[in-house]
C-alpha cells in the first residue's frame, strides 16, 4: 500500500509508515473533507474510514484510515489509484475556484 500511495497520491497528502498493525493513517490537504470524498469513493467501489470518527474534538475532517489487512495486492493497487484520481480532481477543483475568486 505504501508504494501505491507514493505512486498515486498527489503532493500535499501525507501518511504514516506503520511498523505493524492493519491501517495507514492519511492526512489530506485541509480543503478536502474525507467524508465527502468517501461518498464519491463508494460510488467507485472504494471504501475507507473517514478520520473524523477518531477525533473527539470534532477535528480530523481531512483525515482517513486505510486498511490493508485483508485486501489483495490487486485490490489495493486499484483502490489507491482511484483515490489518487479523486483527490487530484478535488485539488484541481479547489485551485480552479480559487483562481476565479478575486484576491486569492
Describe the 3D structure.
The structure is a single chain. By secondary structure, the protein is α+β, with helices and mostly antiparallel strands. It has helices spanning 2-8, 34-43, 73-100; strands at residues 14-15, 23-27, 49-50, 63-67. It has a single domain (2-100), classed as Aspartate Aminotransferase, domain 1. It contains three helices and four strands; from the N terminus they run αββαββα. 14% of the residues are buried. The model has no long low-confidence stretch (mean pLDDT 91).
Question: Strands, helices and their partners?
Answer:
Layout: H1 2-8, E1 14-15, E2 23-27, H2 34-43, E3 49-50, E4 63-67, H3 73-100
Helix pairs in contact: 1-3
In short:
This protein is of the alpha+beta class. It has 3 helices and 4 strands; from the N terminus they run αββαββα.
CATH architecture heading: Alpha-Beta Complex
CATH class category name = Alpha Beta
Q: What name is given to the CATH topology?
A: Aspartate Aminotransferase, domain 1
**Cα separation of the termini:** 36 Å
Please compute the radius of gyration using only Cα atoms.
14 Å
Q: What's the helix count?
A: 3
Instruction: Give the H and E element order.
Output: HEEHEEH
Structurally, the number of domains stands at: 1
Strand order of the largest sheet: 1-2-4-3
Shape: globular
- Class by helix and strand content? alpha+beta
> Care to count the β-strands?
4
Q: Quick one: CATH superfamily?
A: Aspartate Aminotransferase, domain 1
Beta-strand content:
5-15%
Major β-sheet annotation: 4 strands, antiparallel
What number is the mean pLDDT? 91
Q: Helix share of residues?
A: 40-55%
> Which blocks of ≥5 consecutive residues have pLDDT under 50?
none
